[in-house]
Design a protein that fits this description.
Blueprint: H1 10-22, H2 26-39, H3 45-48, H4 58-70, E1 76-80, H5 88-105, E2 108-112, H6 116-122, E3 125-130, E4 133-139, H7 140-145, H8 150-157, E5 197-210, E6 215-230, E7 235-239, H9 246-253, E8 261-266, E9 269-270, H10 276-285, E10 286-289, H11 293-296, H12 303-313, H13 320-332, H14 349-361, E11 367-371, H15 379-396, E12 399-404, H16 407-413, E13 416-421, E14 424-430, H17 431-436, H18 441-448, E15 473-475, E16 485-489, E17 492-495
Parallel strand pairs: 1-2, 7-12, 7-13, 10-11, 11-12
Antiparallel strand pairs: 3-4, 5-6, 5-8, 6-15, 8-9, 13-14, 14-17, 16-17
Helix pairs in contact: 1-2, 1-4, 2-4, 12-13, 12-14, 13-14
Amino acid sequence: MTSLNPVYTIGDQIVEAVTLHQHVGSREAYRIAEQALRDVGIADPHRRLSEYPHQMSGGMRQRVMIAMALSCQPRLLIADEPTTALDVTVQAQVLRLLHGLQAELGMAMIFITHDMGVVAEIADRVLVMRGGRKIEEGDVYSIFDHPREPYTRALLAAVPVLGSLAGQDLPAPFPDDAVTGPPPEQDTVKASALPVLEVRDLVARFDVKRGLFARTFARIHAVEHVAFAIRPGETLGLVGESGCGKSTTGRTIIRLEQPIAGTIRFDGTDVTNLTRLTEQRLRRGIQYVFQDPFASLNPRLTIGFSIAEPLTTHRLASGRAVERRVQELLGQVGLAPEHSRRYPHELSGGQRQRVCIARALASEPRLIIADEAVAALDVSIRAQVINLLMTLQRKKCISYLFISHDIAVVERIAHRVAVMYLGQIVEIGPRRRVLNQPQHPYTRRLLAAVPVPDPRRRGHDRDLDEAEVPSPLRRLDDPPQVAPLVQVGPDHYVARHAVGGLY
């Protein structure tokens, strides 16, 4: 996602690759670039060509990189984690697109990934590596059916499988060979307590300007009248496709973005209109864990200094107490004391994300917003981080707003699930009901697109909707229609469908 040049538009960068390798004129190159964006599921591709990378979400930037590679119609495509940051529906569409291009162009692929579900979906042969060495190689069926090496078996065991918790009301950690006996119950929700966070009719919009006088001609409706509550010890999973408003919702709650309307209550106090004192209280009580741990940490500061910063900012410790607290936090996230003297580039991705979690825990928050916090991690490290978050929740009764496009991971950690589409929540309720008995067509579409780690079910039982997600950009005189939520079960609400009043 950092491969794009931040000072050039998306269109200029794709056109550069097209003109360099296909020797076509500028007009034809822009046509090819626009079609390439359309092929990878980017809505309104003509407008997107004039945008810069920072104006797109992480998933959108990854789609642009895939479009750039496919625009030149290569004979061999080396795809290094190409779908890691994509939501499940776009991932399924991209995998289907790559299959189609292989048949059309005779293109070969080296597909590098840590997602064994994707491997089952696309690979003919599989090579498993560890520590720079080949561990195991074979056709995809033999690797999945009869893995010989313990490391291969461990990788397959760490894959989150949607439906593995079917019939269970509570989330459960990933299996751990080091833990004997049944997994601990994640019965942490204090149902009788007041919500730690309550959001009502939250609205976030962004004006799009152009011309010499920066006249507003359109508006991006990122979040439209979103409402939910999170109780102490509860995890709310917020899922949806890239660009649906998940991250903007989280960023608006913590006031990294300014809301247009709505109320945000934290611990019973309205923090919508912040004073300096309430802002400091909000920042201490709600912490944020971002998707990219490397970008979240200052590369010039040691790990110990980064973790200590919230302690000194909020005046929670001083002197020797800061150092002792840093060592304690490192231990809580499974890192050694010597890690405090290292720099971010000296750690692995999983270790860096653990550091970000330790930094978030430093201020003893009531709520942690985890925004795609495990999306960039391989399956084994992802399972460890999820188990760590659940352990911390059992010990400290922390609440989580877990933002993710990986529904199989959400099934593991969430008590309740909210599904977002074009800035609106279209279904919200207990995890078991939403994932096992989805009522809204969009929820069913998301679930159908989740890859299954079984090559024998490749492409089976998946009714994929190839329609593009509409753009959230609208004219000033064309506001979106907010669908009201209707109750269909205990604590289970679904947006009313536009046709016939049905959902």
